[in-house]
Write a structure and sequence with these properties.
With 230 residues, the protein is α/β, with parallel strands linked by helices. It has ten helices and six strands, in the order E-H-H-H-H-H-E-H-E-H-H-E-H-E-E-H.
């Protein structure tokens, strides 16, 4: 194995915790006429793990509470400019990326979403320098699960699919899509999806290191057995 390509939201960024922290701050900032917990729970529900556009999320909650269209625009603008300030990394994020870098793995990232918002989150997490390539769907003009975005990353890194692991949380957009291109896959387990047809599974990011070490040892063992037979 030569490379690891990551998803962002739900894989490196704890998006649920980030959105919850942001919603608490937003509720306090605008003194909304709705119970704070109810507001945060509803925003998180409408967000659907980041797969619903935020204009739609805020349009819906404004409509449900008979708030003004102006408030919708204010809340949405607040999200666009300040969400990244609340970014929560998953445990072991920096330690894992640093060790992968130390072991000379090529590291990349593919994420769906708006360019400015995703770039701001990456910078807020302090991880931009680890990646040899970062593909964000808005700027690429294609999004997961389209296989072209995975193929584009491999091309830019000059890698073969079988040399590369892709790590993500979504069973279809990440795992199935990457497997169709021929990448090996690692599913970051979560409370949203029950299962995924991945080659490997992890709970914590640092488990990636154990997977790579085990596979490297298996490859060396196989090579030694082959040499002994010859």
């Amino acid at each position: 194995m030569k490379a690891i390509i990551f998803d962002l939201d739900g894989t490196l960024l704890d998006r649920h915790s980030t959105l919850k922290a942001f919603c608490i701050a937003q509720h306090a900032k605008f003194d909304l006429s709705m119970n704070r917990k109810l507001y945060c729970d509803r925003i998180i529900e409408l967000d659907e793990n980041g797969y619903i556009r935020k204009e739609q999320v805020y349009s819906q909650i404004v409509q449900e509470n008979n708030w003004s269209n102006h408030l919708k625009n204010v809340l949405f603008d607040d999200y666009m400019h300040h969400f990244h300030e609340f970014c929560v990394p998953y445990k072991g994020l920096h330690e894992t990326l640093k060790e992968l870098e130390r072991q000379k793995y090529v590291i990349g990232l593919i994420t769906n979403g708006r360019y400015e918002g995703q770039r701001a989150s990456i910078q807020a997490l302090g991880i931009e320098a680890y990646f040899q390539v970062v593909l964000i769907s808005e700027s690429e003009g294609i999004s997961k699960p389209n296989p072209l975005i995975f193929q584009r990353a491999l091309s830019q890194l000059n890698l073969l699919p079988e040399e590369t692991f892709y790590v993500g949380d979504h069973p279809i957009n990440d795992i199935e899509a990457a497997k169709k291109v021929g990448l090996l896959t690692i599913w970051k387990r979560n409370d949203v999806y029950k299962q995924a047809n991945a080659d490997e599974e992890i709970h914590e990011l640092n488990e990636i290191l154990s997977i790579l070490n085990r596979r490297e040892n298996n490859e060396l063992h196989t090579k030694h057995e082959k040499n002994d037979r010859e």
